[in-house]
Amino acid sequence: MSDDIEIDVDALKRRMDGAMTALKTEFASLRTGRASASILEPVMVDAYGAMMPLNQCGTVNVPEPRMITVTVWDKGLIGAVEKAIRNSGLGINPVGDGMTIRLPIPELNEERRQDLAKVAGNYAEQARVAVRNVRRDGMDQVKKAKNNGMGEDDQKIWSEEIQTMTDTAIENIDKALEAKQAEIMQV
Q1: What is the pLDDT of residues 137-148, one digit of tens each?
Q2: Which domains are seen in the chain, by residue range?
């Protein structure tokens, strides 16, 4: 490979890994009928005049398979936390109990499971598109390097390396999707 012309493969790898991380975050927000503290990660609470993540307003616990509890640290925020959970679109109705808010997780019916599996598929497709965009950027770098004097052998080596990274990233996305859909469809 040419010494004076470099393709930033590490940056491409980081961006592909970022797509996978974003996908895992999206998957964590999907309810599977079982309680998981990660369900509440995207919930933002209007606290002290600013939007704050729920986990910065209280402690989130999973004491039972179908129950999440949030112990709010400031008594004045209980109403705001309940409102944020209700408005989050998670389909969970909070029940206040002093400083603790209980979130019973209802069973999912078959139709809802299929809808969630489709949503998971859409998240995975967005991640695949992100990885393909990173691949395109990498191939553009290779083309620019060719125009700046990179040899054909080096160009082929870089192109193959970028394609291998892309194939691996998409394979990992497909595995994550398969696992999440199996989790969602599990009764």
Answers
A1: 999 998 888 888
A2: 9-27+109-185 (1.10.132.20), 34-104 (3.30.1360.40)
